[in-house]
Automatic annotation (TrEMBL):
InterPro entries: LMW_PTPase (IPR050438), Ptyr_pPase (IPR023485), Ptyr_pPase_sf (IPR036196), Tyr_phospatase_low_mol_wt (IPR017867). PANTHER family: LOW MOLECULAR WEIGHT PHOSPHOTYROSINE PROTEIN PHOSPHATASE, LOW MOLECULAR WEIGHT PROTEIN TYROSINE PHOSPHATASE. Belongs to the low molecular weight phosphotyrosine protein phosphatase family. This is protein-tyrosine-phosphatase. The keyword Hydrolase applies. It is an enzyme of class 3 (hydrolase).
Length: 172
């Protein structure tokens, strides 16, 4: 399985989610899952993650190896699951879908958070904000990634996605 995390510029949220997910998958012994990240915009192509994203991530034990790239329709071919950070990211990625099967791969990371039954929260974009915004972002990402890793381990990812669709009335 290949998971792609996606945010706007691919320097804050999606590389953080990628790093957290890689780390937690390894801890869980789920070595058959690969992870990459991308952004919906081309602002930072080829750049490393934001310095505050790296600093907070490294302080929590995460490593960063990717550079920013832009999500394209071709990424649907390699990704089995596209985890977006907010509703705007979801709209932008779904607009690139060529088939209903592509659209079905797109889900907000917050769908895997423990409080998702109360409504899927967006992972707020910390770019341009203080260090505190990066702390909050990592807290949200870690909670949701823990839920995702548990769903991967017990085979319930598709049920979580279906529950998210049902709460939205089946609309994508």
């Amino acid at each position: 399985m290949h998971i792609m995390t996606v945010c706007l510029g691919n320097i804050c949220r999606s590389p953080a989610a990628e790093s957290v997910l890689v780390h937690k998958l390894k801890e869980a012994g789920l070595d058959d899952v690969t992870v990459s990240s991308a952004g919906t915009a081309d602002y930072h192509i080829g750049k490393r993650p934001h310095e505050l994203s790296i600093a907070e991530g490294e302080s929590r034990g995460y490593a960063f190896s990717s550079t920013a790239l832009q999500f394209t329709a071709d990424h649907f071919e390699e990704a089995d699951l596209v985890l977006v950070m907010d509703g705007s990211n979801a709209d932008n990625v779904r607009a690139l879908a060529r088939r209903p099967e592509d659209e079905a791969k797109v889900v907000r990371l917050g769908a895997f958070a423990p409080d998702a039954a109360d409504g899927v929260r967006d992972v707020a974009d910390p770019w341009g904000h203080s260090r505190e915004a990066y702390l909050t972002m990592y807290d949200q990402v870690e909670e949701a990634v823990d839920g995702l890793v548990a769903a991967l381990a017990d085979g319930t990812v598709s049920q979580v996605i279906a529950a998210t669709d049902n709460r939205r009335g089946g609309q994508r």
